[in-house]
């Protein structure tokens, strides 16, 4: 029996299930501390496996295409934050103050890796450049995102706290990634042969952190303080933000004379925001009770960008050779 077209993908259904579970059966107290330790280990394993999976050739292969990479980084770490800040008078009334903090946090996140590369390949774009750019965005985000959070999202935060957050992210995310990449000659083939296991760890770690974050938020009164009109406004806000960025990246790529293949890479890498990086970073950068509202915009934007970009990739892919 074929899957009904109106149903979202399995991971989206699991995310919804986890949010519902955290809403009715939240973990708290000593259980929350144990859960936090488990999620830290799971996230470290996730980045270790990603480091082991990424080839040295993929890192070197796209580095020479500097104009494309500079434009994508500017879209990810400059255009998005500027839009979030400039549109604040128009967009903030649609949501609660805590949700808008989540929107600003969304704007300073790095690009996602898997879906950006997958959509670029589906649309027949420059896949090698997409691999290099998306991977570089993830690594640069370890340093840039905490600084932008300190400047734009929580301006009152002390600079020392931002540096401390960078240190924690380096320890929890970058160190396992580097160790995994250094061990690639010994474990790379095994990781490649067990791609399904990597996917389970990838999605499982996100589900664990989402459950822990929403549990803390629910205990602190997330649903009591978030009205339904604000949730509807958040969906509208995410759609507007994605539409503006998609149009902007397309026009910039054409105005600067990039090829159609490079345009595709710029559109799909420059418009994405990473749920995989955003979830563990939020755990480090924000208090536990605040992580739930902060992550809600990231989760919604992630699903909207997947649905919209899938259709856009199909449209690009149907173009004549």
From TrEMBL:
Which regions span the lipid bilayer? 12-28, 34-54, 66-87, 99-120, 127-153, 204-224, 230-253, 274-294
One of its Pfam families is SBF_like
GO CC annotations, alphabetized? plasma membrane
Q: Which UniProt keywords apply?
A: Membrane, Transmembrane, Transmembrane helix
InterPro entries, per the entry: Na+/solute_symporter_sf (IPR038770), Put_Na-Bile_cotransptr (IPR016833)
Show the PANTHER family listed in the entry. SODIUM_BILE ACID COTRANSPORTER 7, SOLUTE CARRIER FAMILY 10 MEMBER 7
Q: Which protein are we looking at?
A: Bile acid:sodium symporter
Q: Which organism is it from?
A: Comamonas serinivorans
């Amino acid at each position: 029996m074929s899957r009904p077209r109106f149903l979202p993908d399995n991971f989206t259904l699991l995310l919804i299930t986890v949010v519902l579970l955290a809403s009715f059966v939240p973990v708290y107290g000593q259980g929350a501390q144990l859960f936090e330790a488990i999620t830290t280990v799971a996230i470290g394993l996730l980045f270790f496996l990603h480091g082991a999976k990424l080839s040295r050739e993929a890192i070197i292969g796209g580095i020479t295409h500097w104009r494309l990479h500079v434009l994508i980084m500017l879209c990810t770490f400059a255009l998005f934050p500027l839009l979030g800040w400039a549109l604040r008078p128009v967009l903030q009334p649609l949501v609660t103050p805590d949700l808008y903090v989540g929107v600003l946090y969304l704007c300073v996140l790095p690009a996602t890796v898997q879906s950006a590369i997958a959509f670029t390949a589906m649309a027949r774009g420059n896949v090698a450049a997409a691999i290099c750019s998306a991977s570089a965005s993830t690594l640069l985000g370890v340093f840039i995102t905490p600084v932008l959070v300190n400047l734009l999202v929580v301006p009152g935060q002390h600079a020392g706290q931002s540096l401390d957050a960078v240190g924690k992210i380096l320890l929890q995310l970058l160190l396992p990634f580097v160790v995994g990449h250094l061990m690639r000659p010994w474990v790379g083939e095994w990781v490649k042969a067990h791609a399904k296991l990597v996917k389970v760890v990838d999605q499982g770690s996100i589900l664990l952190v989402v459950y822990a974050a929403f549990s803390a938020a629910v205990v602190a009164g997330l649903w009591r303080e978030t009205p339904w009109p604000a949730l509807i406004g958040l969906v509208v806000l995410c759609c507007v933000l994605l539409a503006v960025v998609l149009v902007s990246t397309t026009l910039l790529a054409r105005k600067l004379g990039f090829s159609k293949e490079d345009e595709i890479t710029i559109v799909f890498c420059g418009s994405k925001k990473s749920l995989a990086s955003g979830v563990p970073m939020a755990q480090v950068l924000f208090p536990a009770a605040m992580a739930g509202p902060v992550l809600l915009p990231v989760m919604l934007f992630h699903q909207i960008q997947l649905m919209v970009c899938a259709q856009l990739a199909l449209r690009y892919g149907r173009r004549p050779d």
